[in-house]
Amino acid sequence: MAVPLLDLKAQHATIRDEVVAALMEVVDQQAFILGDPVAQLECSVAGLSQVKYAVGCANGTDAILLALRALGVGHGDEVVTTPFTFFATGGAIHNVGARPVFVDIDPRSFNIAPDAITPAITPRTRAVIAVDLFGQMAPIEQVSEAAQGRPVIEDAAQSIGASRRIGGRTVMAGEAAAIGTYSFFPSKNLGGYGDGGMMVTQVEALFEALMKLRTHGSRRTYYHEIVGYNSRLDALQAAVLRAKLPHLSAWSEARRRNAAYYDAAFADVPELVTPWIDPANTSIYNQYTVRVPRREAVQAHLKERGIGSNVYYPLPLHLQPCFAYLGYREGQCPEAEKASREVLSLPVYPELTTTQLDEVIAAVRAYFGR
User: Fold this and answer.
1) In angstroms, rounded to a whole number, what is the distance separating the alpha carbons of residues 33 and 36?
2) Could you write out the three-class secondary structure of 305-338?
3) What CATH number does the domain containing 179 carry?
4) In whole angstroms, what is the distance from residue 280 CA to residue 258 CA?
């Protein structure tokens, strides 16, 4: 039995009527840019994230870029972040004219190591970006302390609906940062039928700045207070996301069940390291990412057996050719570099059947002679 890494058709089949009805409502109204569907989605996501304000935008990359701009980050500034993340995190820093400063990760969670942040702070540091990798939150309270008063952006592209216990209360992804950013790329736990993104904040001044930045620096048509961007969330995408949002909690719970099923099945395979979840966190398992030796051989074996897998991420940002101008060398972020050689993500999407899970498990165990 072939098991893909992700099967969006399986999910669509369960919600098709809801999504089609939502789409046709927008089509019948012929109102495709912003409008009520976007405003209603913003309200719902703000509620989920336990924040006052949410602002939709064109994609998750723009969400980071607009967040940086709203915080005043620009030419000559530095932004501290992790090198073990999707390119958008570092690319957005570069594209606002700032300099990415990469620091190493916690080898257990793959998230930024808070104790690596403070030594990287300089008088030019304007912000810190923490990434919630693979569905679990970075230790946002520790990151904020390490940032020494600089604002923290939480790149929550992979963690919408994830939570963390901080000081006796449950904090949602995006809630505790100056600005949290989401991606609605189709492969995300809450994915659209195309691109989409959103920013959340508790601060009214940042909300106002983000609202201007997404629409050419304007809150009133043809009057532009700043130079902004054309980064609006389409009403069609908002309609899809509104239809899917009520299912997100159940989908995330199914991912956790699938992850627990894998954890138990791989417990006696010492060569394979299953995901470590911080006890303070509730992960949404955007990916189920293991560490294995001889990763390419394992992946080739799985492909032969029809099992989907992927590598997130094979080359950390500090070693990417486009960032050669920063002067980083191999060995400067050793944990990120080691992770990039060992990580492999397995299917964990909520629609997986027990038979499919067992197929994945059997293929992995066969490689290791179990």
Assistant:
1) 9
2) CCECCECCCCCCHHHCHHHHHHCCCCCCCHHHHH
3) 3.40.640.10
4) 20
* Paired tokens of 175: 């809630």
pLDDT single digits (tens) 84-135: 999 999 999 999 999 999 999 999 999 999 999 999 999 999 999 999 999 9
Pick from 370, 162, 156: which is nearest to 259 by CA? 162
Report long-range pairs for 16-21 (Cβ below 8 Å, ≥24 apart).
18/243, 19/193, 19/239, 19/240, 19/243, 19/244, 21/243
Compute and round to an integer the Cα radius of gyration of the chain.
20
**Measured between alpha carbons, how far is 161 from 256 in angstroms, rounded to an integer?**
13
Residues near 4 by Cβ (< 8 Å), separated by ≥ 6?
A: 308, 347
Helix (H) or strand (E) holding 299: helix 295-304
Contact partners, residue 122, CB within 8 Å, separation at least 6: 78
**In contact, 13 and 137? CB cutoff 8 Å:** no
> Residue 316 is encoded by which pair of tokens?
């950390």
Predicted pLDDT at 34: 87
* CATH code (residue 357): 3.90.1150.10
Per the document, the length of the chain is 370
Q: Which two tokens stand for residue 244?
A: 């899917």
Residue 220's pLDDT is 87
**Containing structural domain, residue 204:** 8-246
pLDDT in tens, 150-190: 999 999 999 999 999 999 999 999 999 999 999 999 999 99
- Note whether residue 119 is domain-resident: yes
Q: Which of 226, 240, 195, 231 is nearest to 37 (CA)?
A: 240
Cα separation of 289 and 305, whole Å? 19
